């Protein structure tokens, strides 16, 4: 796998993977393929932009011709697909975009990958395909019970990957990551959203009672996990990449305020979103059997992440305009007004 196409490589997790791969494998050519939607950001790739084994191509995974060109031009050996619409809140407002990218786009990548005879296809998925886990922890063979359009679209993409493995014998692997945090995350997700809003002493809209449980995984651990499974995963198998750091959303929010030295009074409990899963939890034993282990403790990782946003206002302030402000208005304005 000398020439690796990383789709969605300018996004949050994808860019962490690109940065990792470019440095870890100087003899591999890493081609970042990204549509550069609101969440795709070439600033995420500045640390490796001058490296000889890095290339960027702008394109949409749902555009068959663009995918064909990339596979031909770079003689691609493997595809790692991070490209996705990925925010549950946005999927509730506009499900169509999620089906287009997360299902149709995955199909086109698989189909063109098969025609070009690539060695391996790695689909990056999510713990949300398992749905709401009231007790215990999900294992890879558990059934899918997605509850949001986002989770359903990711499950649909996974099922297409399985079909191409079973029907055509394509060498595929799937990763399912838990809630991921760290530097370069678009500021609509919980950690960067509450961090940057609190820095400006704006109200933090916490859904419902805030006692939803999420399992937190640092983005660099996530990137290394995808690398491990790309190289050593068994064809046709899926692997959980679990942070095994379960926290209540309200506790994470309170800790962010503590780290920033901001008052807890900034918290506002607002009406919950539709179909909000209460708890996610997975085991990671299967990934550990391949030699993957987490390196980041959540408390230390969160502190470092909050500090990164404090020290890198140049990166996020210019993002909190335009599309971001429209999404904020649609998702939070009425909720905050209802409790003011």
Q: What is the N-to-C order of secondary-structure elements (H for helix, E for strand)? A: EHEEHEHHEHEEHEEHEEHEHHHH
The percent of residues in helical segments reads: 40-55%
Output the radius of gyration: 19 Å
Number of helices: 12
* Structural class determined from secondary elements: alpha/beta
Q: How large a portion of the residues is in β-strands, by DSSP E?
A: 15-25%
Largest sheet: 7 strands, parallel
In the CATH classification, which architecture of the domain at 3-181 and 215-241 applies?
Answer: 3-Layer(aba) Sandwich
Distance between the termini: 56 Å
**Shape label:** globular
- The fold-level CATH name of the domain at 3-181 and 215-241 is Rossmann fold
Global mean pLDDT? 96
CATH homologous superfamily identity of the domain at 3-181 and 215-241: NAD(P)-binding Rossmann-like Domain
